[in-house]
Amino acid sequence: MERGESSESKSCDDDIWAKLAPLSSRCSDIELRSDEIVICSEVKSSSVVKQEWCKITRNKDQVSAILQNKSSSAMLVDEKVIEDDDTTIIRCGSEIILGSDTEDSMTYRFRVIPPEKSCSTQLKILLDPEHAKCSICLNVWHDVVTVAPCLHNFCNGCFSEWLRRCEKHPKVLCPQCRAAVEFVGRNHFLHGIEEDILQSDSSLRRPNEEIALLESYASIKSPLVINSGRKSRRKRIRSSTDEEIRLDSACPQCVNEYAGFQCNQSTIHLQCHSCGGMMPSRPNNGVPQHCLGCDRAFCGAYWHALGVTGSNDHPVCTGETLKPISERTIIRIPFLAHEKNRHEQYITENCFSQVGKSLQDVISEFVTKMNNRQIDRTRLQLNHSEMITAQTHVCNECCDKLVSFLLYWFRITLPKHLLPPGALERENCWYGYACRTQHHNEEHARKRNHVCRPTRGSHML
Question: In the list 38, 108, 301, 419, which could disulfide-bond 7, CB 3.0-4.6 Å?
């Protein structure tokens, strides 16, 4: 049996512009990297003796090529017989049968790989740094936040300190225009502009000590809803005790007192990312209100600690929406695991039986290793990744990301002899876990191992 390989000339770059994909799983793809390539056979019994099969020359239209028969026998291209030294045009999807003996012939499919699209036109925007300064500290924004409805921008630390000073006031006023503030949140778009300004003019950067102090003040992680002090226009009803109860209360603690606390007109509220319900912002309460992995607010842990249940007027999440991974029961491999490659997920599932452990056992083992700093967290796609431990409260989505990260480390540290038989025969993909082809090419996702570090591309370590 012969295996094809390419002998390149007139090399232009290392990009693969096309490939010959074998219909048989016993052979590997023949990658075409040059505009003119000679395809040869490699005989296993003698690595020195090689026979030229054909020459493929890329056309100027970038989507087709000219194939010339270089062998001593005829070959079939799209069911057309091509004699020795004859040429024909091949396009994406063309079927090429190399060899005259049908039992020993090799069948390939010509595939054109589209080039990556790149934006050749860049838009330049001129921005005066004076328009990107916080009116409180008079420096370029740091972790910029935007208040509404006036839409003025401030440093997160500066406005967080302003909120603390306004706690005893009936409403929060904008430091710049004195309008009543009803909402404040981090502005990720302006954060990118902030970084571009500091990169273009390093003299505008603050000292590291000042930045550290500013970040210690910052308390705005997710959008805050602020009571402006305006009276509700909705009708009120009176109870038998003649106490007024608002029908549009922001949260259960706006109506009733729980654990010695009840909201007032100056209480700042957080909106739960899961159920959309409201809860008072109490960062010093001791009960987590934010997921450390994504900085989004979730009300489950807060209301669960107070024993508050939801209603039609006040939606409340269950305690499962925000809890430590050490308290979670992992019963399935997340859909996100191994970059959503279902073949790799299936192999990982088989590995559990090979090592005689359950999914929960494996996750518990690697959570312990993470706590002991035995795992590199570079690939952990969570905010504050270095601060996350087994006791850190995370949401369900971040929990799936964390479990997927731990399963990656389980696979790459697993001895090869414990892999299923079919997985042992696969070669590593050059681009490893960062491979994009595995998402749209089922055969490539199955034939190559993608639970490995990249040896090519921008994700190389």
Answer: 38
Half-sphere exposure of 319 (CA within 13 A, CB side): 12
In angstroms, the CA 33 to CA 40 distance is 15
Q: For the chain, which domains are there?
A: 2-112 (2.60.200.20), 130-223 (3.30.40.10), 250-317 (3.30.40.140), 327-423 (no CATH)
Q: Is the pTM of this model over 0.85?
A: no
CB 223 within 8 A of CB 162: no
State whether the Cα torsion 361-367-369-371 is positive or negative. Answer: negative
Q: What is the pLDDT of residues 81-140, one digit of tens each?
A: 888 889 999 998 888 887 655 455 678 889 888 876 655 566 677 788 899 999 999 999
CB 17 within 8 A of CB 64: no
Question: 388-427, pLDDT tens digit by residue?
Answer: 999 999 999 999 999 999 999 999 999 988 888 888 889 9
Would you place residue 339 in the very low, low, confident or very high pLDDT band (cuts 50, 70, 90)?
very high
